[in-house]
Amino acid sequence: MSEILLQIDGKEVKAMEGMTVLEAAQGAGISIPTLCHHEKLEPFGGCRLCIVEVEVRGWTNLVVSCVYPAAQNLVVRTRSEKVDRIRKTILELLLAHAPDAFELQGLAKAYGADKDRFEKEASFCIHCGLCVRYCAEVKKLNAVGFVDRGVRKEISFIPEIASKVCWDCKECFPLCPTSALQAAYVLTQALTSPPSSKTGSGK
Amino acid sequence: MARLNSPEALENFRQEILSKRDPKTPCISICAGAGCIASGADEVIAAFKEELEKQDLTADVDTKGTGCPGFCERGPVVVIYPEEICYLQVTPGDVPEIVSQTIKGKKVVERLLYVDPATGEKAIHESDISFYKNQERNIIGSNIKIDPKSIEDYLAIGGYSALVKVLSGMTAEQVLAEVKKSNLRGRGGAGFPAGIKWEGSRNAPEPIKYVIVNADEGDPGAFMDRALLEGNPHSILEGLIIGGYAVGAHEGYIYVRQEYPLAVENINIAIGQAEAYGFIGKNIFGAGFDFKVIVHQGAGAFVCGESTALMTALEGRVGEPRPKYVRSNIKGLWERPSVLNNVETWANVPLIINKGADWFTQIGTESSKGTKIFSLVGKITNTGLVEVPMGITLKDIIYKIGGGIPGGKKFKAVQTGGPSGGCIPEDQLDLKVGFDELTKAGSMMGSGGMIVMDEDTCMVDVARYFIHFLTDESCGKCVPCREGLRQMHKILTNITEGKGKAGDIELLEELSEVTKEASLCALGKSAPNPFLSTLRYFRDEYEAHIKEKRCPALSCKELISYYIDPAKCQACLICARKCPAEAIDGGKNKIHVIDQEKCTNCGTCFEVCPSRFGAVKKFSGEPVPSPIPEEERNISRKSKEK
């Protein structure tokens, strides 16, 4: 892996080949907002909030920094009128689902997003997938997953697995930017019979 | 059957097949594609077999269930060779007459011929029918000549000769050069040059590579890939094997949607036959090239037609797109170089190899070469699959081939490019069909869907319909597509229901920008097109809905009212009897009146009112005239008394 030099917001930034633009920026202390990113997880590219402008062969492109590879001499702008406008709309779309989420409120302030712009669809989940991916990639347990697709997509604990493994873990809880995960867990708990011992229902 | 181990063995075998076939022997070809089967082709085939047996002709006449020739509007289609007599909408009841008259008596059954609606002239031969006459059927033209379940039929029309040519005398680089020179662009939607895609994969350092057929055709109203897979599966296999050789791949995948059972059946049969004959397997034709093909059935997700989602699904995971800043021809299936091309793209390959890139580039425009199959549907006289040279105008497709708009209605727009394509209005009908031309007009080529709309179609409702389709099919992974489309769909629905507000158009434009710019895959990036193109050409319709609560096409249910014109009503009672809401007050000799309070706007009265009366009218954006007073409703019928 060789060292590369790129330019982010006018600053010369050193990075290693194979890094993403987001990692390069974070390494240089430049902050880019994210919702679905987690350093222990594979890049997901779902929330699109980390969108930035890059210059490639004279063209300005919008790319998502959590998956876009950093490259020698790449010119990156983490803020622009367009980038800010897109981030604002993305936040407004998410606030329709989770208007009271602390993390979203902070970002909404920074980008001037109006939490009441779109009609409320209070499902709380913003589909960042942190819980699903953490459980699959780090814990290798797959106790929580996505069900259905598109606008009907939801997170759901798999009762057969969750009833055995979740009691002692719950590492996904603090990852959730809204309260959707706990709600789903409580629902699953209500649907399954409690285990006979602390270590799970046996078998 | 033993494997054919050399080009000579194949050629000998081909001659053997041809020697057994007398071109003068009558052959009854009946389309056995999904469309004609739905219209009763299986029964027609059975009836022919029975009738031939009855008349003791089985030994002298061949019958064949073939691939789809494209004229689905008039199915089941029957073509009798060698005269090439074409009969349309044939039923089992017509069969005895066809056998006695045409097969035995060499006479034409006039009533089953195509009658040109413009001239009233009858067309005896397939090639005389105006629908076919203006096409250039290089790919789909073979469908009616072969039984897709018979490799001998494919070999008889010269099948696998391109593969022989490649394996017996061309290097992979030469094949690549020929395909690059042909400037064949992907028929699946994006129009990326196939040769450049192939070259990228060939040059990628990773030694294991793949070639893949994208047969996850999911656009509403599009079925050209189905017709090819069902009707001529070997042509796609041949293209795929050649592609594998050129790229250096030894494994090919066919990703076909589960909803195409006949296509799945026929391609599997074709693979089995190709393996038995040695066109697939180890050391093909003794040239040292190994290749195998695996069929993978989709599970019903539209987004799996997107390249990265398709490859994720092939890997056995949930078919969701993944971010790609490295092209899949470099890093695709299992992170290996993977060439993914659409069914029709692969079907073009054997033709290019056999006839040469120079032949191929003679057809088409500067930047779009060859022919393209479109599925011509909607408000059009001749529904079906049409194969035309690139560069033909939309007008020629719609009027010369499609026969124009039925029912004396006026053309309004043609939607091309599938759900994320765009609508093109009448003043652009001289547009030449090509990848760049259609994009410039705000639409796209897509995979070749072409939906014709007449004056009764509301363009806002069309946008709502397609955005709804895409909202439903969005995988939900990224926010702009999942949430942006959800909101766009809500706003468009409100507008069509008369709940549009000032600022809605601007909000839709903003959401379009975010969805286009920030979505993860091509589904989201192109999803706002149906809105953007209808806004571009039919902004007045949006404004009428929002400002005047009026639907200019008189189509949006919430914005129209029905009214019976008292001057035209003949008190026939038909509408009063059919009205499901019992909203029509009327009796014998009494002019009928709709009770607007009870009316549910279902439109039944409008449909059932005899056209010679035409008494039911639609109103939008203006109040319905008040009903005529009770005492004026009686009709006295002088002339009717017997």
Account of the 3D structure:
The complex is a heterodimer of chains A (203) and B (642). Chain A has six helices and seven strands. Chain A has 203 residues and is an alpha+beta fold. Among the domains of chain A are: 77 residues, Roll (Ubiquitin-like (UB roll)); 62 residues. In chain A, the strands form two sheets. In chain A, strands 2-1-5-3-4 form a five-stranded mixed beta sheet, with helices on both faces. In chain A, a hairpin with a 6-residue loop joins β6 and β7. In chain A, α2 runs antiparallel to α3. Chain A is globular, with a radius of gyration of 19 Å. The C terminus of chain A is likely disordered. Chain B has 642 residues and is an alpha/beta fold. Chain B has five domains: 121 residues, Glutaredoxin (3-Layer(aba) Sandwich), CATH 3.40.30; 204 residues, Rossmann fold (3-Layer(aba) Sandwich); 84 residues, Ubiquitin-like (UB roll) (Roll); 89 residues, NADH-ubiquinone oxidoreductase 51kDa subunit, iron-sulphur binding domain (de novo design (two linked rop proteins), Up-down Bundle); 76 residues, Alpha-Beta Plaits (2-Layer Sandwich), CATH 3.30.70. Chain B is built from 24 helices and 19 strands. In chain B, the strands form six sheets. In chain B, strands 12-11-15-13-14 form a five-stranded mixed beta sheet, sandwiched between helices. A four-stranded mixed beta sheet of chain B has the order 2-1-3-4, covered by helices on one side. In chain B, α8 packs across α11, α18 crosses α22 and α19 runs antiparallel to α20. The termini of chain B are far apart. The model of chain B has no long low-confidence stretch (mean pLDDT 93). Chains A and B meet through β4 and α2 of A and α18, α19 and α20 of B.
